[in-house]
Amino acid sequence: MSIYAFKAKPIQGQEVSLEQYRGKVLLIVNTASHCGFTSQYQGLQNLYVTYKEKGLEILGFPCNQFLNQEPGSNDEIASFCSINFGVTFPLFEKIDVNGPNAHPLYQYLEKTAPGLFGSERIKWNFTKFLVDREGSVVKRFAPTVTPEQIAADIEKLL
Q1: What stretch or stretches form a coiled coil here (predicted)?
Q2: C-alpha span between 83 and 69 (Å, rounded)
Q3: Which of 29, 84, 132, 145 is the most exposed place for a label (fewest CB within 10 A)?
């Protein structure tokens, strides 16, 4: 199984298959607009601009499961990201990443690339998953790992 088996809804649009990203290196991130790590949007956008032409796609999944740090509507989230950070990478509708209502993509990511001490749960906003061109999850990064620190790992896959 690969991430291409899943579907998700862009923040403004109809559900799409992640199959459309086949052959790309992906960085999948659960995001929030009112978090201590929100400034990572800028680093993510910088990575996107730097590596998009080489085959990188960043997929942002807003989530409000961590101290209600993403309370806005999908339209508000899209506007916030565009105005404050110039985000042009794909954002998807707000989802749950943990628990019984967790998006199936995140259920898969958690099982495929557990975190510290084998924990599957997403611990906080801006947990990142790096996926190779074949759709296999390569690595999970904690929220404290900045986008800039991931650049070398991305370059290896490009």
Answers
A1: none
A2: 18
A3: 84
Q: How do 56-62 and 128-131 pair as beta strands?
A: unpaired
Does the predicted model carry a pTM greater than 0.70? Answer: yes
- CA-to-CA distance for 39 and 84, rounded, in angstroms? 9
Query: Treating both helix axes as pointing N-terminal to C-terminal, what angle do 40-51 and 147-157 enclose, rounded to 10 degrees?
Result: 20
Catalytic, 63? Answer no
Would strands 128-131 and 137-141 be described as parallel, antiparallel, or unpaired?
Answer: antiparallel
Which one is catalytic: 11, 18, 26, 35? 35
113 found inside a domain: yes
- The answer to the question of residue 97 being in a domain is yes
For the stretch 64-105, pLDDT in tens is 999 999 999 999 999 999 999 999 999 999 999 999 999 999
Establish how many alpha carbons lie within 13 A of residue 139's alpha carbon, considering only the half-sphere containing its beta carbon.
12
Torsion angle of alpha carbons 115, 101, 107, 142, nearest 10°? -30
Q: Rounded to the nearest 5 degrees, what angle is found at the Cα of 79, between the Cα atoms of 123 and 12?
A: 80
